[in-house]
TrEMBL record:
Residues 1-139 form the Globin domain. The lineage of its organism: Bacteria, Pseudomonadati, Pseudomonadota, Gammaproteobacteria, Nevskiales. The gene is hmp. SUPFAM superfamilies: Ferredoxin reductase-like, C-terminal NADP-linked domain (SSF52343), Globin-like (SSF46458), Riboflavin synthase domain-like (SSF63380). FAD binds at Y191, R205, N206, Y207, S208, F384, F385, G386, P387. This is Flavohemoprotein.
Length: 393
């Protein structure tokens, strides 16, 4: 428990973090990644370049400082962070490194006059408390994953057993344990962590599991990103018979039990977690509205599979919309997602469960639309892939 005096000091730094949080975290990451190469694989360099990682950490630090009196008010943020950490295998020994860099960044960016010894001491204590909270929850998750039938802890070697193009830019990889053992089930919507060494450099990534568990293998479906080191490696160099290392499934964006109609609204490669959710929901008999947004037919993955499924299951209503259609493309609509379009495609009564995933501006638009259409907030679920951050209103 943090002392009253330390809590007050941490809270007094909130205005500084609100204005200067990003400068601080940019500096923090520079120190961390330059001086501690052992933690580099935990960070996707693309998120550093885009500034997303810095914004996410600045937001996390700010939320933490604001809620230091009542950490339970942080809501789902802690769970999201724990899941992301677990899937990348963050370990207790990483925390002191981050703590040292954070305190150094606070001192060097704010200056010794503002970041006095008392401020650093209070933040040191506060960080220690947070680190304890996270490492405890993460160890619990590691133990739970290992205790499941077929479960494991740490990296496990998997062999690529099949590789299938799903669109011009998305390819599926079927992965079987190299030890011939079973794999645990996962909750639809979860992702795995993948560890690869490319030309001597280790990288770790999360990929949504795009097929329901069958006890023997997992499937991930990866979009080739123009500058993506790992996605290009997987597309171009990882072939059938090759080995990849996986960390066990994790993730809190999961399909909850319910008998209400379900809407899965996805864009681009955001379709992947919705595929396992769709498969799982079929057995429940509930109505399913599968709504997908892609740039054009060439980028539209899993179209035939969803069409086949909806031809066989009356409960599925499948719609798709293209933002940059090619001349021979046929879609139910053209353009970006809009409130009026969703109003027409969702059931008239709004007592439905909605799960949505895609690029951030897409999700902001879906969130706003669902809110004005009267879908209860507690029934709207979404996830960012990448550093946790807030959907701007
Ligand atoms: N489990 C998860 O949380 C996962 C999340 N994702 C996320 O899904 C996103 C998918 O991106 P891409 O495949 O690259 O998409 P994309 O660039 O191919 O775009 C797909 C569609 O998104 C919509 N869209 C794009 N920009 C928009 C805007 N400004 N406003 C409204 N709609 C817009 C359009 O309808 C477009 O056709 C990524 O951000 C990725 O991080 C992907 C996989 C899993």
């Amino acid at each position: 428990m943090l002392s009253e005096a330390h809590r007050e000091i941490v809270k007094s730094t909130v205005p500084l973090l609100e204005t200067g949080g990003e400068a601080l975290t940019r500096h923090f990451y520079r120190i961390l990644l330059d001086e501690y190469p052992q933690v580099r694989p935990l960070f996707n360099q693309a998120h550093q370049h885009s500034g997303e990682q810095q914004r996410a950490l600045a937001n996390g630090v700010l939320m933490y400082a604001k809620h230091i009196d009542r950490l339970d008010a942080l809501g789902p943020l802690v769970g999201q962070i724990v899941n992301k950490h677990v899937s990348l295998r963050v370990l207790p020994e990483h925390y002191p490194i981050v703590g040292t860099c954070l305190l150094r960044a606070i001192r060097e960016v704010l200056g010794a006059e503002i970041a006095t010894d008392a401020v650093l001491e209070a933040w040191g204590e506060a960080y220690g408390l947070l680190a304890g909270l996270l490492t405890g929850a993460e160890e619990q998750a590691y133990a739970d994953a290992a205790a499941q039938p077929g479960g494991w802890r740490g990296a496990r070697a998997f062999t690529v057993s099949r590789k299938e193009a799903e669109s011009e830019e998305i390819t599926s990889f079927y992965l079987r344990p190299a030890d011939g053992g079973a794999v645990p089930d996962f909750v639809p919507g979860q992702y795995i962590g993948l560890r690869v060494v490319i030309d001597g450099t280790e990288h770790r990534r999360n990929y949504s599991l795009s097929m329901l568990g069958n006890g023997d293998e997992y499937r991930i479906s990866v979009k080739r990103e123009p500058a993506g080191q790992v996605s290009n490696y997987l597309h171009d160099r990882a072939g059938v018979g090759d080995t990849l290392e996986l960390f066990p499934p994790a993730g809190a964006f999961t399909l909850k039990d319910s008998s209400r109609p379900l809407a899965l609204i996805t864009a681009g490669v955001g379709i992947t977690p919705a595929l396992s959710m769709l498969e799982a929901a079929l057995g429940s008999g509930r109505d399913i509205h599968f709504i997908h947004y892609a740039r054009h037919g060439g980028a539209h993955a899993f179209k035939r599979q969803i069409e086949d499924l909806s031809a066989r299951h009356e409960q599925i209503r499948h719609r798709f919309c293209y933002s940059e259609p090619r001349h021979d493309d046929q879609a139910h609509a053209i353009g970006f997602v809009s409130e009026s379009q969703l109003a027409g495609w969702l059931p008239e009564h709004r007592d439905i469960d909605v799960y949505f995933v895609g690029p951030k501006p897409f999700m902001s638009q879906v969130k706003r639309s669902l809110s004005s259409l009267g879908v209860p907030d507690t029934q709207c679920h979404y996830e960012f892939f990448g550093p946790a951050s807030a959907l701007e209103e």
